Amino acid sequence: MATVNKVLAVAVPDAASVLAALAFPVVVIDGDGRIGYVNGMSEQFFEHSAANLVGQDLARVVPADSPVFSLIRQVRDDRETRVLVTTGTGAAFSISPI
């Protein structure tokens, strides 16, 4: 009996479409700490448009004493994902190298 392989024609979304559709904020920063991309949920979280956020230094958007900066340094040094859950708000931050 012959085996038949079926191939479905499925449109594969590009990365920007996937990031834009996520239900949580996504912020991409470059090596100098500048914001290179934000999705729609980030606009809501920071209460600023992507046009206002992209190109900004992250330190102008996030308080300087935020533990997020320590986490970013650890990720850059170790090249491993780190997760931070803040006490009080319960907000979770996952920071990954790309």
Characterise this structure.
The protein has 98 residues and is α+β, with helices and mostly antiparallel strands. The chain is 31% helix and 15% strand. The chain contains four helices and four strands. The strands form two sheets. It has a two-stranded antiparallel sheet. Strands 3-4 form a two-stranded antiparallel sheet. The relative contact order is 0.11. The mean pLDDT is 86.
% residues in beta strands: 15-25%
Which structural class do you get from the secondary structure elements?
A: alpha+beta
> What is the typical, i.e. mean, pLDDT?
86
Distance between the termini: 47 Å
Kindly provide the radius of gyration, computed on alpha-carbon positions and rounded to a whole number of angstroms: 18 Å
Global outline: elongated
Q: Please identify the oligomeric state.
A: single chain
Biggest beta sheet attributes? 2 strands, antiparallel
**What is the number of helical segments per DSSP (H or I, 4+ residues)?**
4
The count of strands amounts to: 4
Q: Which runs of at least 5 residues are low in confidence (pLDDT < 50)?
A: none
The largest sheet has its strands arranged as 1-2
SSE order in H/E notation? HEEHHHEE
Give the proportion of residues in helices: 25-40%
Structure described in brief:
By secondary structure, this protein is an alpha+beta fold. The chain contains four helices and four strands.
Features:
about 100 residues, alpha+beta, two-stranded antiparallel sheet, two-stranded antiparallel ribbon, 4 helices, 4 strands, about 15% strand, elongated
